[in-house]
Design brief:
This protein is mainly α. Helices cover 76% and strands 0% of the residues.
């Protein structure tokens, strides 16, 4: 754990000139303030909004939002279909509402079941937090000793061990800065523009945008379809606004922030990040969002260290004639 926060959070020890125990507890507090508590707050708000969407559709047959009107969408579709008499097809509000119900109800049921499950496993979650806190404090207080043990157990030269650990630390920091911070910035920017356009359930869209921002196209998977739907539903300037702001601002946040936050030599290729993310989700569940990229960093670092220190020293067999 320390390998990935030593270069950022744990600098509090040097800045505050505090004892190791005080620095360790400050680090743990910062972890909860910057990661755990925001995640819990976002999860609570998003779950509430998602269930609100499902309840709106279940009770009134539509989404309670001025930005989305099933009547307007049905009228727009029918006006386009009227240009093709051979189709002889008319869309009704009831059909759109029924389709939305079929789409939302299974997902909302899963979300509700997960909420109930989380409530029932509150004790396990509390136990996990205690274990996590204990491990973090122990590692931070015994970091130097842990590094010595690694050097003693490792069959590699100390120079290689140091290079290995430094590389893991720098790439772990770059992953946090270059992937999660950029995704957070893109998600927040998307949320601001959606709020200006009058879209409801902002917290839900922000969370989806942050998750999608890990992918190459990022929040465009969400914003561009939303912009098109806005235009079709008669909210023309809102739809154009969403598309233009994504193309000019949100889509370029990555190009501006990543070079400033991540040194080129410490960056992990986006394709490897995405591969590690989805592989981690498949293998470890939600924790795979963190564990997957970390394992990919470990594999990438292992290959780089091997190439740098051993492949060049390998003996090329001589060919005798």
């Amino acid at each position: 754990m320390r390998l990935f926060i030593d270069q950022s959070i744990c600098s509090s020890k040097k800045r505050l000139h505090a004892k190791e125990s005080i620095s360790a507890y400050i680090t743990l507090l910062l972890i909860f303030l910057t990661a755990v508590l925001p995640i819990l707050a976002i999860f609570t708000v998003v779950t509430t909004q998602f269930l609100s969407i499902a309840n709106d559709i279940r009770s009134s047959g539509t989404i309670t939002s001025e930005s989305f009107s099933l009547e307007v969408i049905a009228d727009q579709i029918n006006s386009v279909a009227a240009n093709f008499p051979q189709l002889e097809y008319q869309v009704t509000t009831q059909q759109l509402s029924s389709s939305l119900k079929e789409l939302i109800e299974p997902v909302s049921g899963i979300a509700l079941n997960n909420v109930v499950s989380l409530g029932g496993n509150a004790l396990n979650a509390f136990t996990g937090i205690i274990i996590f806190s204990t491990v973090v404090i122990t590692v931070l207080l015994n970091y130097n000793r842990l590094i010595q043990v690694i050097h003693q157990l490792s069959p590699l030269p100390n120079e290689v061990d140091k290079r290995y650990l430094d590389r893991l630390g720098s790439m772990g920091t770059s992953m946090v800065k270059g992937t999660f911070l950029v995704a957070l910035a893109q998600g927040l920017a998307t949320g601001i523009f959606l709020w200006i356009a009058g879209i409801n359930y902002i917290a839900l869209w922000v969370l989806i945008s942050i998750i999608l921002s890990v992918l190459p196209l990022g929040a465009g998977f969400l914003v561009l379809p939303l912009g098109i739907v806005q235009i079709i539903s008669g909210q023309v300037w809102q739809g154009i606004f969403l598309i233009v702001t994504y193309l000019l601002i949100t889509g370029n946040i990555d190009n501006v922030m990543r070079p400033l936050l991540v040194p080129k030599e410490a960056s992990l290729h986006p394709a490897l990040t995405v591969l590690g993310l989805f592989a981690g989700l498949k293998a470890f569940g939600f924790l795979g969002v963190i564990l997957g990229p970390m394992l990919m960093i470990f594999i990438s670092t292992t290959l780089e260290v091997y190439v740098e220190y051993y492949k060049e020293k390998s003996v090329t067999p001589k060919i005798t004639q």
